[in-house]
């Protein structure tokens, strides 16, 4: 038996009338469809333009559809849920697909009616419509595409639960801005396009255009298909460069004036739809988060919202995430898509809350930078927080803080501090210097700004200015009684002196730093200054003095300092082992340092170079040359200076390799190294087989044997028919390879080998 799709009567279907019990019912259904009074859709909705991209998502959704009876595509406004769901349904090869469009409904009691009309089930007198719907779908193999569920989630969930429980051959593919939370639901979160967004733009625009500029526009639109399509259509009349320059006004720009004014025709209308579904408290938090383009955690969300209980904030954020108005990143932080954030900022200004929210954000960000003013060294979590908030600090500096507000000093310094780690600091440095010259001389944030102005001058090789700024920071802190940061400030002064070539004053400043640190109980900061002084002594030839300082500093650094700080001290320890002739320890320390700084490409170079030095001295000449050449190339590209002592050490080791290898082999190794990226160089440097006993070339061994016989360099040159200078070079390189200092040690080595 079958059920008539028009009147619901059970009947024995014939091949000529599979859905209706009579011609009258067939004609009634036809009249209803023609009059537009029915929402019955016998085919999938049509869309303008070809379906572009999303191959990965299609494959994943089709696979999920084979495993689950309820699959919900969840995503933010305009992300392309409906278009993708239609394509999935089209490719699912189901015998019967019905579309249930809920977007135009406004009341919960209309949901069952929409389902019933979509599948051709009509109410009987005295029988609940849901009962009729379940009976109509009882034995049918049907895929229901239920579109736009977000505003009627509870009622929709009830109908779907009943269908899946009573109709074993029914599947549901739903789209919503939040999950239905129905039994057995599989949720597929949909995000903006990446590379496919450029293809979509070109297809909708009808021309290829400047691919780089199109990619930049799509990236600023977060790859949201609705925004990309509207921008593409607009680009037919507005030059692409002008469009790119005005994307901050995208909510006004991106609308299809020639089409139906619906939420699918305007970016603002699409977001309006989601916003209107929020509760009053959700709307408050939503708009107050608008001034955080760099994302946010629970702490700043609580501050910006005005200090409600953290549980309340968690609940509100969870609701906003469920409704796809904020997204949660892999690191646990939340963010808004830029179009959504701009919409929220409009609402913030409408409610007169922009100034209050801005002040709360500025104050909170300055608190994140406060440890730089009051403590001698930043803890790892404090550095991490500044990196996380970088984009928010940049936005606050550019858009929120008043030009005359001295808190600009703190914000500018925080920006430069992060930029130093990231390796691009020129622009941030220029901003800091401008603000520094405009700020009051007595402001407490000025000391921190002066310290970073000194470090900037060192990086830019303005060494006299570096010393001047560091001295001013020290004197200002002394005058203000800020003793807790003196250890750090004298360390910055030592860096300035050392860069200027004043080793004596650099050592004096480091001893002052250690003295202040010990007095104030700043153990980690004392350890950092001790390691720096150890490096200074090493460069001056005091290996044992350097070893005592560096090895004494390592326990405190390993226990409490950031990995990149520990890495510097471990590298120094490796260099000390090199000078003591202990290749095994040196190799192990350089490997440890490389692993500690692996996530900071600029910082890892010295450790990779250390492994290269050990490789050459262990006889793996080509490998060592590749690593040293790779790092030299990266130093040139990234403008990373090298310590003079370390440069001399690497140069002498390259001389060893140059002598051991043929000219062609040396050139091959150099070229291979120049082609390495930092990841490849690091992986190569961590090869466990790098350290092995030193290997001398045949010519070097002959020279060593003649030295052991007591011959002078001139006698050796005459005997071998080579120049006196060549013999000197051989002797020097052999001593370097074997970590020997004198000719007598070389003779002793020859006699024992």
Describe this protein's structure.
The protein is mostly helical. Helices cover about 65% and strands about 5% of the residues. It is built from 39 helices and nine strands. A hairpin with a 6-residue loop joins strand 1 and strand 2. It is elongated and about 120 Å long.
Outline of this structure?
By secondary structure, the protein is mainly alpha-helical. It has 39 helices and nine strands. The strands form three sheets. The protein has a five-stranded parallel sheet with strand order 4-5-6-3-7, with helices on both faces. A two-stranded antiparallel ribbon has the order 1-2.
Distance between the termini: 100 Å
Query: What does the largest sheet look like?
Result: 5 strands, parallel
Number of strands: 9
Strand order of the largest sheet: 4-5-6-3-7
The average pLDDT value, as a whole number, equals 81
